[in-house]
Design brief:
It contains four helices and no strands. By secondary structure, the chain is mainly alpha-helical. Helix 3 (38-50) packs antiparallel against helix 4. The mean pLDDT is 90.
């Protein structure tokens, strides 16, 4: 490990500008690959669940999805 640190120090340029963020990475594509964050999924599920114009089965499914997301958080906190 120490040799890797020495190598990185020897091969670094303190005058080099900091690396720029990549402009070729589209956030939309990254979201498609990784999926939406749980917080966004919760908002969407809750919006469907409280929308009285939606079908009852859709609302129940949305509540089930919301419950699943809550359980994941609860399980993560208990471990």
């Amino acid at each position: 490990m120490e040799s890797l640190l020495r190598w990185s120090i020897a091969n670094s340029d303190p005058n080099a500008p900091p690396p720029q963020p990549r402009s070729d990475l589209d956030p939309g594509i990254i979201d498609m690959i990784l999926g939406k964050p749980d917080s966004e999924l919760m908002k969407e599920a809750l919006a469907v669940a409280v929308d009285e114009s939606k079908d009852e089965d859709d609302r129940i499914q949305a509540l089930d999805n919301f419950e699943m997301l809550i359980e994941q958080i609860d399980n993560a906190n208990s471990e």
